[in-house]
Design goal:
- This protein is of the alpha/beta class.
- The protein is built from six helices and five strands, in the order βαβαβαααβαβ.
- The chain has a five-stranded parallel sheet with strand order 3-2-4-1-5, with helices on both faces.
């Protein structure tokens, strides 16, 4: 059975993020933010990648799985169903190969966590990503940290 973990750093300091990832045995973090920048110290691409690397966790940014700005507005406005549907149309039309590749990697690849900002996966595009991955891999288990 393939497994993917998800995590949002919204309410976590870098040390707490690392603790969650290490406790789950995560070996690779795939950053699914469109722009891997953050006002939160330690959560932008370069510093996050370095911190993860110090703990033996690989970092990858997959922009194709991020949420474009026009769709982030819907999520921020609390229009979650509309946002999720729009993001699903977007990712399936612009990045189906990225979803296919990730689904194929999960069975034999490193223990992988999808990372984004939002603490609640139900209000984040990573829920849509995991649903799309489940459609590609019926055996996929999803664990939200």
């Amino acid at each position: 059975m393939a497994t993917v973990w998800t995590i949002g750093y919204e309410k976590l300091l870098p040390q707490a993020l690392m603790a969650e990832l290490e406790a789950a045995g995560v070996q690779r973090v795939i950053d699914v933010r469109f722009r891997p920048q953050s006002r939160r110290p330690g959560m932008s691409k370069t510093r996050l990648s370095a911190m993860l690397g110090e703990h033996g966790i690989a970092y990858e940014h997959r922009r194709a799985l991020g949420t474009p700005a026009d769709l982030r507005v819907l999520y921020r406005a609390g229009r979650l169903q509309e946002a999720a549907a729009a993001y699903r149309r977007h990712v399936e039309s612009t990045a189906p190969d990225a979803l296919d590749a990730l689904a194929a990697e999960l069975a034999d690849g490193p223990r992988t966590a999808l990372l984004c900002l939002e603490a609640d996966p139900a209000g984040c595009h990573r829920r849509v990503v995991t649903e799309a991955l489940r459609e590609r891999r019926a055996d996929l288990a999803v664990v939200d940290l």
